[in-house]
Amino acid sequence: MAVSTRSRRNLAIGIAFLLPNILGFLVFTFGPLFFSFFLAFTNWDLRRHNIFHWEPLEFAGLDNLVRLLFHGRFWETLGNTLFLMIGIPFTIAGSLILALLLSRSMSGGSGRIYAALVASAVLVASAVMLTASGAGLSAMMILLAGVVCGIFVIGSAGGTTVYRTLFYLPHFTAGVAVFLLWQRLYGREGPINNALEPVLDGLTDLVRATPPLLYQGVMVLLLAGSLGLLAFGARRLWRMWDDGELVPGGVALPMVFLLLPFALAAPLGWISPGAFGWVGLAGALLFVMTYSASIVTARPNFTAAQGDGVGTALLFSLALMTAQFVLIGLGMVLNSLPEMARVEEGLSPPEWLTSTAWAKPALMIMGFWAGVGSNNMLLYLAGLSNVPQDLYEAADIDGASRLQKFWQVTWPQLAPTTFFISIMAVIGGLQMGFEMVRTMTQGEAGTTVLAYYIYIEGFEEGRLGYASALAWAMFALVFVVTLFNWRFGNRYVND
């Protein structure tokens, strides 16, 4: 009986300690979630349902969901969100490169070598500052050059610990203040445009002196390179299917991703039909039709189990799709350079945050700056520290090069870390952009993302029912993508 009384008393004490946390969860998390789920099926509108004017609240059923699916604004904002997520692979790759560099010791081995390293850093920084001072740059650009040179000198003197701290600072200080700073940097008379102006003046003279046919030829080469990536991707998928690493049904969606750049390029005017666009698109479609017919009629050497290789094929195709978009974008820019240089003022710095063509890339550049040294870098540093050194020693005995050691040893050992980072990056990417867009562009120039659209519908337009349906649609999207990553990506990591 005494034991039972003591157990009840311990249980009561434990519940008393947990009660503040439980109450906080019920009031500030579960309660709003349940209320928003209820609102998603109503016609709640602040203009009709408020303390000054109250109309009967009606149950709307699936009307909000139907409106969401057939409303072009939703798909536009979802497209903007997915476009900004193109920068995620570059950010993850940058974090990995930073981690590889910062995992090495910078002590120099001896005091003399260390002193020479610091002296070289000071010499380079001094030369850069003298050049910047005599180049006619603005005071802000000279200040920024001084900050970069100071970081270089302090990092060389302090070693990898200082560099890790400095690279992590953008993530630590990310917020409205940083967005306002970048808004100033991207201004018409901001430091970035002041630095670009002399470079663009020289480029204008070069473009005017070069035959336009040369730029069209380079554009054709870049577009041919994107077609080459399509052929390479299709060949790789064929080999995976033929070797029993990929189920036949797993080929369809990766091929859709590989065709997407060409499906969007010509109709949206990214490629000039007279130059290469329609011919390239027709060639790509003919290639895919031939490839699909061959893969349907042929038989693989080995048969894959259900679901095998789907995650790997999708990640592979998404990486190639990003490279294809980059090549097509460069080709588009090069093709338009002669026409842009023929105007009287020549090439001018872009309107970063007010131009539809530059607003999203500007936000992606800022996101890369903030994310490359973030928690992803720390996770990769932790993963690199756990790679067994015996594997590197065995690779050295076999005569493996640095690149071979990375692909055969480092990269497979970092698969669990990359898997976790990818899932968290996709979740964050689908929810990203509210503070950034509201502070820097207010949704103008095609930068309205899904999170900001929910805010507009709920708190500016007052349509709380529709905004709640949007929020739950975003939750469903995040859940499905995460479940898909876990279903196929986790198998790849475990294998």
Your description of this structure?
The protein has 495 residues and is mainly alpha-helical. It is 75% helix and 0% strand. It has helices at 2-39, 63-69, 72-84, 87-102, 111-133, 139-158, 160-172, 176-185, 191-208, 212-242, 252-265, 277-297, 310-342, 356-371, 375-385, 389-397, 402-413, 415-430, 434-440, 450-460, 464-494. It is globular. The two termini are 54 Å apart. Residues 273-277 have low confidence and may be disordered.
Summarize, please:
With 495 residues, the chain is mainly α. The chain is built from 21 helices and no strands.
Element-level helix/strand string: HHHHHHHHHHHHHHHHHHHHH
Q: Percent helix among the residues?
A: over 70%
Number of helices: 21
Classify the secondary structure makeup into a structural class.
mainly alpha
What does the radius of gyration come to? Answer: 28 Å
CATH architecture field of the largest domain:
Orthogonal Bundle
CATH class of the largest domain: Mainly Alpha
Tally of individual domains: 4
Give the strand tally: 0
* N→C terminal distance: 54 Å
Rough outline: globular
Mean of pLDDT: 78
CATH topology of the largest domain, by name, is MetI-like fold
Which consecutive residue ranges, at least 5 long each, have pLDDT under 50? 273-277
Major sheet details: none
Strand content: under 5%
CATH superfamily of the largest domain, by name, is MetI-like
